[in-house]
Design a protein that fits this description.
Length: 218
């Protein structure tokens, strides 16, 4: 029996995933957490075989959870199930030590497939993501770079940038990430500096344009 820990701050989504997993004879949910802190505590008490986690969590994010587990429990693989664009985040997840990346709009059977691939020792990525990597390799030019240097952003700064692109207010972003307005202001300032943007209005325009292009291409 494969014992799975679910990490997502939306209770309804956790319950839906738990119902999907419970229908499989070889899978069971051994715990559910809404934050990195809760997840790490359950890892210690329940010792799951696999963790399925969102990226956006209150306080510390899913990438930080992956890094913590790689340092303390490298025997427990992590699959990320997220709404964030896989072409932007999947590489970061794999680089951090994650073993799979799935978009939340993926059919349920793909998640079950991912679980079995990862538990069999493999790495799971969508066909679209695999094709992008193969195109980059075959071109001899490496992976295509974004129109401005998003690779300079930290994981948290990229998360903030995407939420700005979704036209979220400062209040909503701070609440969603579990950070103070002052910390959010610092992140915005760092993003502007790294991307060479003059002011907050230019930051917002670039973020929205980037998000809209990603939605069109997805």
């Amino acid at each position: 029996m494969i014992r799975i820990l679910l990490v997502d701050d939306h209770p309804l989504l956790r319950e839906g995933l738990a119902h999907l997993i419970a229908a499989e004879s070889d899978l069971e949910v051994c715990g559910m957490a809404g934050s990195v802190q809760e997840a790490l505590a359950l890892v210690e008490s329940e010792s799951p075989d696999l963790v399925i986690s969102d990226l956006t969590l209150p306080g510390r994010n899913g990438l930080e959870l992956i890094k913590d587990l790689c340092a303390t429990r490298p025997d427990i693989p992590v699959i990320v199930l997220s709404m964030h664009d896989e072409l932007v985040y999947a590489e970061r997840v794999l680089r951090a030590g994650g073993m799979g990346y799935i978009m939340k709009d993926t059919p349920p059977e793909r998640l079950l497939e991912a679980i079995r691939v990862v538990m069999g020792g493999g790495v799971f990525a969508s066909q679209n993501l695999t094709n992008q990597f193969l195109k980059a390799l075959s071109s001899g030019k490496g992976q295509a770079k974004p129109s401005f240097p998003l690779e300079r952003l930290t994981d948290r700064e990229l998360e903030v940038f995407e939420l700005i692109g979704q036209a979220k207010s400062n209040h909503d972003i701070a609440r969603r990430l579990g950070i103070s307005p002052r910390t959010l202001d610092a992140h915005r300032a760092h993003i502007r500096e790294k991307l060479g943007l003059e002011d907050s209005n230019e930051l917002t325009r670039h973020a929205i344009r980037w998000f809209e292009v990603g939605m069109i291409q997805s």
